[in-house]
Predict the 3D structure of the following.
Amino acid sequence: MGDLETILQQGELFDGLSAEELQSIAAICREKRLRAGETITRQGEEGDELFIVCEGAVEVSLTVPGPDSSARAVVHLGRGQIFGEMALVDQGPRSATVRSTADNTLLQAMGRQEFMDLCERNHHLGYVVMRNMAADLSFKLRHRNLTGR
Amino acid sequence: MPAIFKVSYVVRGEDHPGAILNTEQAPKVGDRVRIGEREFTVVEVQELIPPREDFHFLHATVKGR
């Protein structure tokens, strides 16, 4: 197993995939390295990539329309976490602004079309990743319930 | 594969978003954790949902200085 497959295996999103399936995921991932403070996604903009945090950390913030429309941080995500999954599954605009909070933040980005093509070719892979993505969304909701944000 | 702990860190007593991150060891009371530009101390750890395969899902309450 290569370095990237080993890293991907340590995230919940790909738990349950075979070594061969992990390899096919690794083949469609693109590495992005960021300095602290760089913006990765902007709320409301188009986007078609899901991101996996391999090193470093990001801050997710939301701007709620209204008289007090300042951005409010809703969670920090560290190693092993994913973001951008909503644009991947519902094709809507970005729901939040995400910026890196640490130098040398390392992400892997996976494009919607390439991922969907992979799911069409391998239904087991598609089922496992979608199941894990749902579990991750559920975990994020539990976190938000606990923080009251 | 060794166990991986996915932890929801919630900051007690502050309006703070907390963090979610994976660790290779379960956090313990007294551990220090960095969230953004600040460090916090773990004051409580609980299982949030049952483990699945090699993944454990925890909730840790932390407080700042």
Notes: The mean pLDDT of chain A is 93. Residues 123-147 of chain A form the longest helix (25 residues).
